[in-house]
Each structure stands twice: as C-alpha cells, then as structure tokens.
Design brief:
By secondary structure, this protein is an alpha+beta fold. The strands form 2 sheets. Strands 5, 6, 7, 8 and 9 form a 5-stranded antiparallel β-sheet that branches. A 4-stranded antiparallel β-sheet has the order 1-2-3-4, with no helix packed on it. It is built from 2 helices and 9 strands. The N and C termini lie far apart (50 Å). The chain is 16% helix and 47% strand.
C-alpha cells in the first residue's frame, strides 16, 4: 500500500512539473481560473500556455510572440466573459509585452483569446494591435476574438 501511495505521489509531481516550470527569463505569468492552474511561459520565441486540472496537465502553443500576460481586472483577477451562444468561458492573453511598461499596466502588440469549452482549453482568434493587460481592454475585443 505504501509503495502504491509513493508511486502515485511521484506520478502526480511528474505530471504537474511542466505546468510550473520556470522560463529562462523569469517572465512567467501564473494564474488560476475556473478550476485550472495556468502558467504562461516562453518557448522558441512563442508564448506557451501550460495548464493543469484534476491531475491532468497539457500545454497550448499560442500565436503570440514571447513575453505574454493574461488580462486582469483592477483587483488582479483574470478578466473573463462567459458566452452562452458558444458555450465557453473566455479570457485574453496579450503578447509581445513591452518590458519597459510598469508592472500594473503591461501593454503589448498582440492578443489572443483562450476558450474553456466543454472541459477543454482551446486557442481562439488572434490579432495585432496595442492592448494593455489592465486598462483599455473592452469586452468587444473578447467577443470579436471568440466568435
């Protein structure tokens, strides 16, 4: 019985490791949303979204250039919207974030939505244009990129 528990713990740690791996430049954005744990990391100049839920982990390579941040509200919670017409919860990732922006209002040149749909995490549409992680992000952007 002890051997089984030990092996289960080792397996769980092994499964979770990619989600909490550290990027070389230390620019990870870690957050929780809708019973998932997410981490944005850089890989080969692109943003990768690692995620875990119920002992299962996976990753999603986004269409965004490195240095990404999730859009948050003024209370530091992930800004999201639920759209019943597509049966999805949606949040927005900003890419190509300028390193000289202050920490509270990081702005970038690219954006892409991520949808939680039928128990799956899927990438949505992306586009270019200035967008900030806290200020100036209207719900229209979320809607347009998710539909």
């Amino acid at each position: 019985m002890r051997k089984y528990i030990f092996l289960s713990v080792i397996f769980l740690i092994w499964q979770m490791a990619p989600v909490f791996a550290q990027s070389v430049d230390g620019n990870n954005d870690v957050f929780a949303f809708s019973n998932y744990k997410f981490e944005l990391i850089e890989k080969d100049g692109k943003c990768v979204l690692n995620f875990a839920r119920n002992r299962k982990s996976s990753s999603l390579t986004l269409d965004l250039s490195a240095n990404c941040r999730v859009v948050r509200d003024n209370k530091e919670k992930v800004r999201s919207f639920t759209y019943k017409d597509i049966n999805a919860k949606v949040f927005l990732i900003v890419g190509k974030v300028s390193s000289d922006s202050d920490e509270k209002s990081k702005c970038g040149e690219e954006m892409q939505v991520v949808l939680l749909k039928k128990g799956k995490v899927v990438s949505g549409k992306s586009r270019t244009g200035k967008v900030c992680t806290q200020y100036g992000t209207d719900e229209k952007v979320f809607w347009l990129l998710s539909h």
